[in-house]
Amino acid sequence: MAETPSEIFLTSIQVTRHTVHSEFLEREVLIDLYLPVESLRKEPLSLLLINDGQDLPKMPFDELLDQLITDGELQPLIAVGIHCGEDRKMEYGTAYAADFKGRGARAGLYTKFVFDELLPFIRKVSLISSFKDKSFAGFSLGALSAMDIVWNHPSEFNRIGVFSGSLWWRRKAYEDGYEDEKDRLMHLQIRKGGFYPWIRTFIQCGQLDEAEDRNKNGIIDSIDDALDLIIEMKAKGYTDEHIHYLEMEDGKHDVPSWARAFPVFLKWGWGV
Q1: 80 vs 30, 192, 206, CA distance in Å?
Q2: 2-270 domain in CATH 3.10.580.10?
């Protein structure tokens, strides 16, 4: 475990880059730690883990977070951007089952990395032994991974942030008899799972996320998949108090769109 020289100091946060050695993933994992300045660490802090952390500097997330905290719109919190590896499509996914192409086969190992290697590392370098609460967010396939981890470890988390989530993740190809009701892996988990009233979920979609419309209903698949997931959650007992859905008319499957949605997510979860 070694820290890189990169370090950024802003008004309310400092950003440091670290490398975490993972035995589970058999690689070095790069993370960016967004830590409130010492004067803002008096109260217990929330922890937000973010998949695809390599995309955060493109927002730029550090300036976005700093501005919200400095302006008094956001409680100080710790954020950790987890950079993906070259094996992203194997490490992200649903841990209980790979998709129809075998992608996501290492998602269980990624989950072990998060709990057994990443969290202890964060506690060590931040000098913070416990957190007020923990949340997980991500983009696209990283969003699916975040939701999968939270859903399967509900006692560990309080919030989920899903941005253009790959909720289409399926166990059958379309040409092999795929059915919405039976083959979307995250939807199946929700249906078979329980009701955890302390979990709150933020789901963002863009009307320009994609062009595919497999059921020809005039609504793109990413929105259909998100709305169907919400239906599954509400069947479990979740209400609009637990779920915030943000559909962006001009939202695309890209970092600029997620950058515009992220302040909404942050103020929804940790607003003052």
Answers
A1: 10, 30, 25
A2: no
pTM of the entire predicted model: 0.97
**What residues contact residue 8 under an 8 Å CB cut-off, 6+ apart?**
14, 15, 16, 62
Q: How many CB atoms lie within 10 A of CB 199?
A: 19
Q: How many residues does the chain have?
A: 272
Contact 10/66 with Cβ under 8 angstroms?
A: yes
Residue 120 neighbours by CB distance under 10 Å: 11
Spans of all domains in the chain? 2-270
Which H or E run includes 2? strand 2-9
Integer Cα distance of 22 and 147 in angstroms: 21
Which parts of the chain have pLDDT scores under 70? Answer: 1-5
For residues 186 and 171, what is the distance between their CA atoms, to the nearest angstrom? 10
